[in-house]
Amino acid sequence: MHRAYVTSDHDFESWRDAARALILAGIPPQEIDWRVGEAAPDASVPPPLPGAGISVPKGFFDIAKLAIAHDDPNRFGLLYALLYIVAQDRSALSDRSDPLVARVEAMAHEVSMARTRRIKAGSTSEAALDALRQEAEGCTRCDLYKHATQVVFSEGPADARLMLVGEQPGDQEDLQGRPFVGPAGQVLDKALEKAGIERTRVYVSNAVKHFKFEPRGKRRIHSKPNAGEISACRWWLDQERALIKPPVIVALGATAAHSLFGKAVTLSRLRGTPVTLPDGSECHVTIHPSYLLRIEDEARKRAEYQQFVEELAAANKAAGS
Q1: Is 177 left (phi over 0), alpha (psi -120 to 50) or beta?
Q2: Sheet (strand 162-166) strand order
Q3: Cα(285)–Cα(288) distance, rounded to whole angstroms?
Q4: How crowded is residue 263: how many other Cβ atoms within 10 Å of its Cβ?
Q5: What are the tens digits of pLDDT across the range 79-91?
Q6: Which fold has domain 123-319?
Q7: Considering the entire predicted model, what is its pTM?
Q8: Which has fewest Cβ within 10 Å: 97, 148, 197, 293?
């Protein structure tokens, strides 16, 4: 049995250094006894295996830095067990159906949410949102960051009573760094105006904050986010909701509804029937404005647009805006 020492309860650097030495030596998780405190005088670092190296996704360390601050007494061993797996298979971190990945993710999420609450208690909500926005700029929780131009974070006042959640940034949003500024955004702006809603008083967000696309010549064609990407990015949406606490949220399309409900849902079954979410907010489900751009029949397009406007107006009324 190998003893590994972490200098203090939540010292990420000493855990990282010890874990790296153990990984290079090929020591499996079940053979390590993690302890807090200074290493014993006779403690020795196992030599690395010949040709040993380590390469893990940056996202692992983002999660580990948070999870190490959790109070779970097994956190050091759990993190090492995950590192041991990820060092052999970088894609393992994306498998959120794996119990170990899910447990470490949950620990990191709890710490992150607690920090968000402390930030809100000690500063204005606007300052807390700014801090969250800056943190999100370095997000590597899924692979979409590798090809997108930038994170497209949300915008709107911290005291908004109405929150709109779309799917993901499009081509123009990715280039400009703002949500809903492309063709679908223009449709949304017109619908908001007709519904009597000032966009500047609404908090506008997306379920996924990096542009997912397929290159086709010089064009970038929108590609729908998968369940793993939606789950990974829900990390940010949950924190936004915790800071703003909007009484009413509008899910614009199936991807947004998936993110808010935590599972895939049927849009037609939920549309027009507000649902109370676990945090007490009221969720109204409607279409994404890009859907209107794809309708070729003009009469049907007018009817769908009018219904969309009415649903926005109903949500705004429910929010008391």
Answers
A1: left
A2: 203-206, 162-166, 248-252, 282-286, 275-276
A3: 9
A4: 10
A5: 999 999 999 888 8
A6: Uracil-DNA Glycosylase, subunit E (3.40.470)
A7: 0.68
A8: 97
